[in-house]
Amino acid sequence: MLKKRYTPDIAELGATCEANYLRLSKLRPAELDSVDTLHYELFAEGHYLGVIKLSLTERSRYTDTILLEQTHAAGRWLNDPHMLVRIYHDASMAEVISAQGHLRIDGFNDYPNDNMHLPDEKSQLNKFLAEWLSICLRYGHRKNSLDDQANVWCS
After folding, report:
1. In this structure, are residues 126 and 47 in contact, taking their beta carbons and an 8 Å threshold?
2. SS (H, E, C) 45-111
3. Which parts of the chain have pLDDT scores under 70?
4. Closest by CA position to 95, among listed 26, 15, 32, 153
5. H or E segment at 21?
6. How many other β-carbons are positioned within 10 Å of the β-carbon of residue 145?
7. Taking CA atoms, which of 16, 49, 92, 94 is between 20 and 30 Å from 22?
8. Spatial distance between the Cα atoms of 18 and 24, rounded to a whole number of angstroms
9. CA–CA separation, 54 and 75 (whole Å)
10. What is the structure's pLDDT at 74?
């Protein structure tokens, strides 16, 4: 019996990318466009969870590329994720283009493959980005780059 080949759900991926764009817009508001790096300290119910860093790596007329990485974690159980995210301002979308050292993530993959990516790897990474950004919005405190003494709620 032949296995059905994975077909990406373009509507779902588009909705996820649009929601990620809105989340990133809240984390990196327009008044901070002159700042290339932002740090968020994560606290939940008074417990330190870690530090998230957003770094602008490329800027063009219609797109930005940022590196989103966890630079410090409260426990050894977290593998300090990092991903490159392309932000499309003209389409109001943000998508993961690279993660954990894999230079390119295809929309769908044959399985098995050399990188051992799942057939829906890109979709899963964008959903993970959505959850990660939601955590940053809910529990993050932005370290103000203009005044290193001040912490500001990001949401």
Report:
1. no
2. CCEEEEEEEEEEEEECCCEEEEEEEEEEECCCCCCCCEEEEEEECCCCEEEEEEECCECCCCCCCCC
3. 1-3, 31-32, 75-78, 102-103, 106-113, 115-119, 144-155
4. 15
5. helix 10-27
6. 14
7. 49
8. 10
9. 21
10. 72
> How many CB atoms lie under 10 A from the CB of residue 88?
15
pTM over 0.85: no
- Whole-angstrom distance, CA of residue 19 vs CA of residue 132: 12
Q: Would you tell me the crossing angle of helices 10-27 and 121-139 to the nearest 10 degrees?
A: 30
**Is residue 15 exposed (0-12), middle (13-18) or buried (19+ Cβ within 10 Å)?**
middle
Tokens of 152: 């500001």
Query: According to the model, what pLDDT value does residue 123 have?
Result: 86
| Per-residue pLDDT, 122 | 85
